[in-house]
Amino acid sequence: MPRLSISVKKKSVRLERNYLMDWYQCRKGKLAGTSYGEVRREAIFTYQEIRKSTKRRPYIRSKYFLKQKIFLDLFWKHLYEKNLRDRTRRLKFFPAAIDLMQNTALAPESKDNPNHSNETLHRFTGLTLDQHMFYVHIRENKRNGNKSMFSVFPEQNPDKFF
User: Fold this and answer.
1) What is the pTM of this model?
2) Domain count, the chain
């Protein structure tokens, strides 16, 4: 796994292979807690605030996508396919992921989905207040332009996406 050197002044991450990646400094930190129940309670509280503001499918508006909607329901379906340990690990970054999607203007890494030709995958990179790097995947349908938050996870292997 390549080593990362984080430069807070430049807001970029340089990998050993001279690959430069921009990241967004979030205003939220990682959720505290060790058990799934503790972390889920805090993440659901954040999700309920978003859900109350909409009548149908919960969504947030993204600065990067020019205030277009990003739907959140696909994230929960994907999350419940994971085991408890992985769910806990991913849910800890949920409030920071919401902050990242709403406020970042930095361009994500994008590529066509190799499994579905009518989809594009976008990967945003963020850094929490407590200096933990994480990624957010957004799936965009090319036909109708719908965007859905697909996944959030901490940094482990940055080369896995491409």
Assistant:
1) 0.82
2) 1
